[in-house]
Amino acid sequence: MNSGKFVSPEVEIALKRQKARATLSSLFVSLLAIVLVGLILFYISIAGINLVQPDIVTYQGSSQKEDNLEKKELNPAIQRKPSSPSSSMAKVIAANTVSPTAIPVPEVIDPVESVDFGDGDDFGSGWGSGGGGNGGGGASFFGQKSNAERIAFVIDYSGSMAAQNRVGIMKKELSKSLDGLTPGTQFQMIFFAGPVWVAGSEVMVKGQAAHEGNTIKGPDGKTYEWVTSGGAHGFKPRGKVQQASWLQVPSVEGKLGSQKREAISAGKDVLKDSQKVVQETGLVWGTRWKYALEMALDMEPNPQVIYFMTDGSTGSEAMQVARTVGARAKSRGITINCVAMMEPKAHDAMKEMAKRTGGKFTVVEADGKSTEIPLK
Prior knowledge:
alpha/beta; Rossmann fold; 2 domains; eight-stranded mixed beta sheet; 16 strands; rod-shaped; vWFA_dom_sf; VWFA domain-containing protein
């Protein structure tokens, strides 16, 4: 027999299991102890931190009541071109305070010219009203107002305008419209009867029975011939039709150099000469709308607004002309405002043309009073 103790296999297995359980228990207790110590240390460290939040101090300047200044309206559709060296460039002032608006400051190039800063039309009225440079546009004709930059007046100078002082009423209103054109506006006057011509041309119409010798001599010296079948509405051009070009209202004023002053003087003469043409142009036989309206539509660049005034219908073709011309004008974004001078026969066609182009239709009575007719 063996002198040592005999351990059966069953006992040995039980001892190993007990040993394993004891080991696991020891490990688990050790982990719990470590976690507990960690939590205690964390709590001590947190409790020892003195959280002090700094006071936030803000300062606000005293609020002053803003003056209720009247702001002139600036036309956003048009950009003003600089009209003198002293205001040729604008800067924006950067500030460290909040401001509701940015203040434009012109760059001073010539100290001598800029002594009276903000005192002339250069910056003052040009900035405020949009009248300087190309910053403005528009006209009014028999109560029909427009803010366009390019305006064509297509005006009836036929013989029938002599009745009931129609021509006197027309000339007075047209002159008033020219006076009211804002600086920078481009304009032209196209007159018509049987033939059509650019205002200021020499017109020779021999009469309703004359098939030859009806001529228009333009300011450029070129001659344009018209023929007629004998009726008031039978006129048509023989060959090329006269081309209309734009005139422009002077756009700058104030203390400028000699070259600028000469340009302004020339621009003022444009209005003066146009006024003279309105008063001195005589009446001519015949009435036809077609070529007058087409001459306005063919201008380059296109007019934005056409003021069309007549005292008579153009016969059976009136409605067809209204629809054809109206469609062309609409496709180019041109508005046609129509004025009927004491002539009910022209109302339907003129209303149609105005309606198609988004324009207005006005009737002028014998006393000169104008009434806008709703377009339905």
